[in-house]
Amino acid sequence: MQAENNRPRHRPGLCFGIILAVAFALRLINLGKYSFWHDEVAYLVTVKSLVQIISGHLAVKGSLFFHIQAYLWSYLGPNLFVLRLLPVLWSVSSVAITYIMSARLYDRRTACLASFLMAVSPFSIHYAQEFKMYSVMICLSLMSYYLFYLFIIADECVRRWRFLAIVNALMLYTHYYGVIVIVVETLYLYIFCGQSGKKTPFLFSLLGSFLLYFPWFLVIELTYCQVIGVFNASWIPAWNLLKPFLSLFHYSAGYHSPLKVGLGLTFIFLGLAVWAMVHDLKGQKITGTNPTIYLAMILCGSMIVTSLIALWNNIWLDRYLCFMFGPFILGAGRGLACIRKPMVQAIVVLILLLGLVLPVLFIYQNRVPREDKTTVYAKKDVIGAARVLDRNVKPGDLVINTSWSTIIPLKFHMTRSLAIPYVVLSSGSFRHVSHIGGDFIYDHDLYPHLLDRTITGHDRIWLVHSSWPTLTEELESRMVKEWMLTHCSLEENESFLGIDLFLFRQCGSNIRQ
User: Fold this and answer.
1) What is the CA radius of gyration of the chain?
2) What is d(CA 307, CA 381) in angstroms, rounded to the nearest whole number?
3) Were both Cys, which of 48, 145, 262, 359 would link to 253 (CB 3.0–4.6 Å)?
4) CA dist list (Å): 78 to 31, 384, 414
5) Would you say the C-alpha torsion 218, 70, 95, 249 has a positive or negative sign?
6) What is the pTM for the complete model shown?
7) Which of 334, 272, 319, 301 is nearest to 101 (CA)?
8) Beta strand pairing status for 499-506 and 439-442?
9) Which one, of 144, 272, 132, lies nearest residue 202 by Cα?
10) 50 — pLDDT class (breaks 50, 70, 90)
11) What pLDDT does 251 receive?
């Protein structure tokens, strides 16, 4: 215990500054180039009213902390680059926390390598470039793990539990899955540090977090969390033994790495984490304050607790479980630092650099799905489609959108408000909705009678045809397109990334056939 408390504290140096600069630069690449997608715009549109936030109208996933940040940040302007800069700052802060935590647990060598892996991580960069709360969650969970470790090794921990209570409360306000972090920390304290006299201060920390979170808990209510949980379980694939490995795959290689490269990176990261345990625990006494045991147990504990919950109500989706990402990267960084042969270490670093950075620069950024299915997440070029509509839509035209995932982004990116009927035929995997003239009509059979009724009275009809391959609306979106091609005359069309824009003209009596 005394050795842990006397561990020298390292001041960040030139290496730390270079790593932060690299992290910042990689996260700025194409930051404002690609359109907002549905969830990003939903955040931006809904956070415009603090009244809605406080009333609980925006209680989705308990992300009040990010909602307030987004509300304040949105006043800097509607520029995509500026808006997405908020999660970038949180992501770069995660790199800094990784360095500080690694230096405290181990040494400067480990700190440089672990923070380097965090800086070039495709998973971290991915969510640094989304106007959502995942970067906040990664940073706050790392801060929580770091403060908890300081808590269990400190002789005097009165001030520690206060800071821990605040960070854990903010984490709950960011995403209520943060409760899993608190559960894992509690289990670790009672199983591995049960005789250390930390129980009472930690209970005060739990009480502090509860009191800070309780007002929001009254707003959203437990039943609301259950509703969101059921909603998530309705579309997240069922848990199986491959889920933890798939999450580690994404933590290691991101979403867009070629399959063979991604598998190679995953096994390297896993191998480094295992090597760190073997190296650090060889001949050492296993205690609750051992940093390697600590990292291994909070990662494994998170997987076990989450898997048990998933058996009851499936919640296993890596971006929701990003609190496991930080310890995994830190463990891999420690394994890299444990390689004592400089040549071998340099080769591994080079392999990781090529495997991680090249997909980020040339493969990762918003590519459409390929036949080998290595890219399953694409952001559509809504900006291009919005510009065409801005220039060409005339009074009396009708605009139909076949995909819910482009409804809000399209309206956001248009520079003028369409003083025309704007109809949405949304055909997702959750519901069938027709939005006509301000009224919502729920119908399980949209085609063809709703299309027939919708286009009646309009000579020119614009069809924004889009599908999101990760959902089941692709077939129904295609049905709308085929019906329009059959019953209307196609005048022109233009294609963008993930979106086809068609201009139809009615064919008179053919509409009723």
Assistant:
1) 25
2) 37
3) 262
4) 14, 17, 12
5) positive
6) 0.85
7) 334
8) unpaired
9) 144
10) low
11) 94
